[in-house]
């Protein structure tokens, strides 16, 4: 059962059922298509709800296991929302150009991120200001800003995330291919022109409508946050057990002392 109750009415209101022109469809999307209207395919939202439930359960389990979910969308309609969800859940994200090797070439990408963190550290400590002229420091700051534009969202990305979430499998196909190459499960919104067989957890829906994307990402955020809460509980229980054990020992000591005094 999904952590967030998916509302089919809200999906309908957001236009999640509108697919692409029937001439641009992918045959493997046939099981998710309800009908054709004015030359456009209409997605079966009952299938969307089922698929979204499965995807959300998986994302909750991933977050509960303490693993990262890399959130990806470089398309205009989703960039801001992806960033908001990523920051709210403290997850890595990519909203600018996907650089080839972001997942598969960890040596090169890791080197660039290390360089960025080093520059930021030296800038904050004042080392750059002490060693270089104002103009040179300004150039360092420009380099930091430029690198943050590209790598800012993945500065804390683990070598292998627990999952990758993609809004548009065609627009960000490289991200899908790299994740598959590493064996990282992919959760993605797949429109009628996409291939769901390449995705572990495909969510059949309109990947162009801002409202539909935003609604699905709200569900994704709830699922991740639910998993993070579950991940925190075992530690809380352990701490509570320690406190209870400590209190119990204190009570035992007090009772022993009292019994000794009475015996005297």
CATH superfamily of the largest domain: Glucose-6-phosphate isomerase like protein, domain 1
Main β-sheet: number of strands, strand sense, barrel status?
A: 5 strands, parallel
Radius of gyration using CA atoms only: 25 Å
> Would you count the extended β strands for me?
8
List the topology elements:
Blueprint: H1 8-13, E1 18-21, E2 33-37, E3 40-43, H2 45-64, E4 69-72, H3 76-89, E5 93-94, H4 106-125, H5 127-131, H6 134-151, E6 163-166, H7 173-182, E7 186-190, E8 201-204, H8 210-263
Parallel strand pairs: 4-5, 4-6, 6-7, 7-8
Antiparallel strand pairs: 1-3, 2-3
Helix pairs in contact: 2-8, 3-8, 4-6
At a glance:
This protein has two domains: 8-101 and 160-237, Rossmann fold (3-Layer(aba) Sandwich); 104-159. The chain is built from eight helices and eight strands; from the N terminus they run H-E-E-E-H-E-H-E-H-H-H-E-H-E-E-H. The chain has helices spanning 8-13, 45-64, 76-89, 106-125, 127-131, 134-151, 173-182, 210-263, and strands at 18-21, 33-37, 40-43, 69-72, 93-94, 163-166, 186-190, 201-204.
Key structural traits:
alpha/beta, 264 residues, 3-stranded antiparallel β-sheet, single chain, 5-stranded parallel β-sheet, Rossmann fold, 56% helix, 2 domains
Give an overview in words.
This protein is an alpha/beta fold and 264 residues long. It folds into two domains: 8-101 and 160-237, 3-Layer(aba) Sandwich (Rossmann fold), CATH 3.40.50.10490; 104-159. The protein is built from eight helices and eight strands. The chain has a five-stranded parallel beta sheet, with helices on both faces. Strand 4 (69-72), helix 3 and strand 5 form a beta-alpha-beta unit. The N and C termini lie far apart (63 Å).
């Amino acid at each position: 059962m999904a952590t967030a109750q998916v509302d089919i009415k809200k999906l309908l209101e957001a236009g999640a059922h509108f697919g692409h022109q029937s001439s641009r469809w992918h045959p493997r999307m046939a099981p998710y298509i309800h009908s054709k209207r004015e030359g456009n395919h209409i997605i079966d939202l009952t299938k969307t709800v089922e698929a979204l439930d499965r995807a959300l359960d998986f994302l909750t389990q991933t977050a509960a296991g303490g693993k990262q979910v890399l959130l990806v969308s470089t398309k205009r309609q989703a960039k801001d929302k992806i960033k908001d969800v990523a920051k709210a859940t403290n997850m890595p994200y990519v909203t600018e150009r996907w650089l080839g090797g972001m997942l598969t070439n960890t040596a090169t990408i890791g080197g660039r991120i290390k360089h960025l963190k080093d520059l930021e550290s030296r800038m904050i400590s004042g080392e750059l200001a002490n060693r270089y002229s104002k103009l040179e420091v300004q150039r360092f700051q420009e380099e930091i800003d430029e690198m943050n534009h590209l790598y800012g969202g993945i500065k804390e990305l683990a070598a292998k995330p627990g999952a990758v979430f993609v809004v548009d499998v065609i627009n960000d196909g490289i991200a899908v291919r790299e994740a598959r190459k590493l064996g990282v499960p992919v959760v993605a919104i797949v429109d009628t022109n996409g291939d769901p067989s390449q995705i572990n957890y495909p969510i059949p829906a309109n990947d162009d409508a801002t409202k539909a994307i935003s609604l699905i990402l709200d569900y994704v955020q709830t699922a991740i946050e639910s998993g993070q809460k579950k991940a925190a509980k075992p530690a809380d229980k352990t701490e509570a057990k320690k406190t209870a054990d400590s209190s119990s020992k204190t009570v035992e000591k007090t009772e022993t002392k009292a019994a000794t005094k009475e015996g005297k």
